[in-house]
Amino acid sequence: MNELHDFVDGLMTFQRPDHGSPQKSAFMLEHRVGLFITLLNLHNVGAISLGAEHPDPPESCDLCSKLLSGQPVFIDGQTQRDGNTQFSPWANMCSDCFMQEGRGIGWGVGQLYRGVITDGQEGWFLLGGGDPDGVSTPTEPWS
Ligand SMILES: [Zn+2]
């Protein structure tokens, strides 16, 4: 089996309704970069659309302080800090910090936002990791 086969096999294995098992968390962590690139490319080819606009987007990356304005994406997600567990702290991360310290894209682990400029105004729209049941808003994951 190759890496792509493992990735696709994992997608099939961990599709709903498996919510938050340790095995799924390990898959999301191991394949976070693959999920990130897949989501961006699915959007680039028009296969998936943008979701809700972030009502109060951050100005900079919480980890490296890079300004997010002008960046293509940011991730509101859990980090691998403080033991890399389900209790690790969350941060608004630029893509570089997400690659180094993010734990994944998915409900309960991280939301991917894409920057879009419309009529000169920058907005951030959900591209991945929202509530699969569509009940909660991305910025209120546990309500
Ligand atoms: Zn950063």
From TrEMBL:
Judging by the UniProt lineage, the source's domain of life is: Bacteria
Provide the protein name: Uncharacterized protein
Species for this entry: Litoreibacter meonggei
Q: What is the lineage of its organism?
A: Bacteria, Pseudomonadati, Pseudomonadota, Alphaproteobacteria, Rhodobacterales
